[in-house]
Design brief:
- This protein has two helices and no strands.
- Helix content is about 50%, strand content about 0%.
- It is elongated.
Length: about 45
């Protein structure tokens, strides 16, 4: 059985767009609460 050739591409999505989409789907309050609950050192 012959193998299929796969071509890998690297998507180009700006981080700001990803964060905005997340904030649209999940409220900023919920994001801040989750960060607080995980004791993360990251800041928004």
């Amino acid at each position: 059985m012959p193998l299929k050739e796969f071509i890998l591409i690297t998507p180009v999505i700006e981080a700001a767009s990803v964060f905005k989409a997340l904030e649209t789907a999940i409220s900023s309050v919920a994001i801040q609460q989750s960060i607080g609950q995980t004791n993360s050192q990251q800041k928004r």
